[in-house]
Design goal:
mainly alpha, globular
């Protein structure tokens, strides 16, 4: 399925929903006292179970998967588990703002990997928009950027987790050219839950001894940032470039910082508000450049030019 199947306008709402949904992830993680790997396990397991009743409709597509497809799906699940494990762990060592600043580098990682693995090259205007957005996201988080050794360790974990999700997105983009997004999400989330389960068994963590409030947080992690966040991202990858979808992560510092202010009393400075405006402006510039580039690509003149033999 390609980007021409749906109009850009019809994709704006799910794009905004997913951007808002992922902003709740660091808040929910901070509320939980369970080990981050246990949070990750039940986040993915509950998502898998919520999707499973509707999975029977996808059985014909699942039967068509090759051994190579299963290997790539398992790899995507591994990188997703690694991302969650490293990023969620970072929140125990550094602030929400400092952790999310590393996530803003995701579009850079994805753009580099997309160039080498998908032959997907960004235009100059798109690169400028990306740079402006990342600069704004850095300003948002700069007021709380950690300088201690402990904070630096947490920031490093978040950076490695960002690299892991970039590999996951590239694998997703490639796999979604030959399978429905529901099949991809269902299987990858299942693999991710299995990887977390194996890790928790090896680490000796309890997987049952938690109060009801923790189970509520696990369920919310599955529904809000996963179903309405990551699952929607996977669907959007069928219609948008990998780098475009990864740009949505830049909304997380804005949403997470606002929620942290309301729930944890973390102040937002005028400097950070300016950064938020800059991030939004850069994101709009990026999307407009992408839309303009697609229109030029699909214009009658461009089509006619391509059809002329050299």
């Amino acid at each position: 399925m390609n980007s021409t199947s749906l109009s850009k306008t019809s994709l704006v709402v799910p794009l905004l929903v997913s951007m808002i949904a992922i902003s709740f992830a660091p808040i929910l993680v901070r509320y939980s006292d369970a080990p981050v790997s246990v949070q990750g396990q039940y986040r993915m397991l509950f998502t898998f179970l919520l999707m499973l009743p509707f999975g029977w409709r996808q059985l014909p597509a699942i039967r068509k998967l090759s051994l190579k497809d299963w290997a790539l799906l398992a790899s995507a699940g591994f990188f997703l588990a690694l991302h969650f494990l490293l990023w969620m762990a970072s929140l125990s060592y550094t602030s929400i703002a400092s952790s999310t600043i590393m996530l803003t580098l995701e579009p850079v990682f994805v753009a580099i990997l997309a160039y080498f693995f998908l032959r997907d090259k960004l235009g100059k205007a798109a690169l400028i928009g990306m740079a402006v957005s990342i600069g704004g996201a850095i300003l948002i988080s700069s007021g709380d950027f950690g300088l201690s050794k402990t904070a630096f360790f947490g920031d490093s974990l978040s950076l490695l987790g960002t690299a892991a999700i970039a590999f996951n997105i590239i694998l997703a983009k490639r796999l979604l050219t030959r399978m429905p997004s529901y099949v991809y999400s269902l299987i990858v989330f299942g693999f991710t839950a299995l990887f977390f389960t194996g890790y928790n068994i090896a680490a000796g963590y309890s997987m049952t001894d938690y109060p009801s409030t923790e189970w509520g947080i696990f369920l919310l992690l599955a529904i809000v940032p996963t179903v309405f966040g990551h699952m929607v991202f996977n669907w959007l990858l069928q219609y948008l470039r990998a780098t475009t979808v990864s740009m949505t992560v830049l909304a997380e510092p804005v949403g997470a910082s606002l929620l942290a202010m309301m729930l944890f009393g973390e102040a937002i400075s005028s400097f950070q508000l300016f950064g938020g405006g800059l991030m939004i402006a850069g994101f709009v510039l990026y999307l407009r450049s992408e839309s303009r580039g697609e229109q030029e690509h699909n214009s009658p003149l461009a089509t006619a030019t391509k059809s002329v033999p050299e």
